[in-house]
Amino acid sequence: MNITMLSTQQGSEDGIRIQEYTEGAEYSLGTTLGQIDLAQAFVAAGMAVEQDTGDVDADADASADAAQPATTKKPKAPK
Fold first, then answer.
1. Cα–Cα distances in Å, from 16 out to 6, 12, 21, 75?
2. Cα(64)–Cα(7) distance, rounded to whole angstroms?
3. Which of 18, 34, 46, 76 is positioned for an S-S bond with 13, CB 3.0–4.6 A?
């Protein structure tokens, strides 16, 4: 799940380590259950919006993504 943060928040993908998720930054979360839960919680609380990946066959891509390590995209430069 790709999300863009609407506000800076702290969160934990594994329930142990806390990291800051920066307003305006895009994150790719979804390799583990903890990442999926965190991304969905941010979106449900209005702290982030889900990004459309533009994939026609998202189910096939989801299977391929599950084998890839999670990556965090760099925050966009402030305007």
1. 24, 7, 16, 23
2. 30
3. 34
The residue behind tokens 């599950």 is 66
**Residue 30, domain extent:** 2-54
Give the tens place of pLDDT for each residue, 12-36: 999 999 999 999 999 999 889 999 9
In-domain check, residue 67: no
Reduce the secondary structure of the chain to three states and give it as a string: CEEEECCCEEECCCCCCCEEECCCCEEECCCCHHHHHHHHHHHHCCCEEECCCCCCCHHHHHHHHHCCCCEECCCCCCC
**Is 75 within a domain?**
no
- The answer to whether residue 16 is domain-embedded is yes
C-beta separation of 56 from 16 below 8 A: no
What average pLDDT does this structure show over 54-79? 53
Overall pTM > 0.85: no
